[in-house]
């Protein structure tokens, strides 16, 4: 089954780049389906539970998380809902696979270049660092280099002036060192990492259990709303943008970057602290008043 893209990129007023539908869609219809996301990998906590390539769970983990049987007929969906027992890569002892086929696929894709680098480390790096390592390694070895990340907002200036900067700089330096690229790559590493922090999705099982990180520049162009009309879903390695409600052709597509069920004040604070913007969707605008603008927690967040 081929990738699907029933969207196009627009310049959204006051929001930068965005996505609109190119056709009418019913609720739950697939708007975008990408089978090979730019970067997708399990987080450290999921390495022993999820195949590092197909991202399907082991039987014991599947049973404990109650996997939904709904699929879209992909190669991942046609497999059993849970993988067999995982086998560690004998080289790095970090990546784990449900089959020889998955191990070969990952080896061919990127793992042949990162295996020895991971093996040399005392511990598994944080997930954003491993994601950044893969991008730097791809650049180092002349593998597929995706320029789409450059059009994403990274809020580097805001990050630089926040308490998050020291940690981001440390992670970027670690990735440059671990990937064994030249120190001159640090500026590029910081630029990419800032975009990962602002645009990466949390990879999940079908039942939304979080298992890792996905950095896919096309889907990351979807803007936020607290009343979204679309949502991001995963099926193994596949990442999808699906309609949450019926969507008309040329209608802008919005997802919620946060839990939209939270209170107005909590949403406002989380969006500012994590993504550096204040939402002006119809739901938030209807709630705004002078007291909201004087929210002490938001004032404090701006100082961070």
Automatic annotation (TrEMBL):
Q: Which GO terms describe its molecular function?
A: zinc ion binding
Cellular component GO terms, alphabetically?
nucleus
InterPro entries documented for this protein: H3K4_H4K5_MeTrfase, SET_dom, Znf_MYND
| Chain ranges of the SET domain | 5-258
Q: Which UniProt keywords apply?
A: Metal-binding, Zinc, Zinc-finger
- MYND-type domain ranges (all copies): 51-115
Determine if Ribonucleoprotein is one of this entry's keywords. Answer: no
Query: What Pfam family is a match, any one?
Result: zf-MYND
Its name, as the record gives it, is BgTH12-00911
Q: Which organism is it from?
A: Blumeria graminis f. sp. triticale
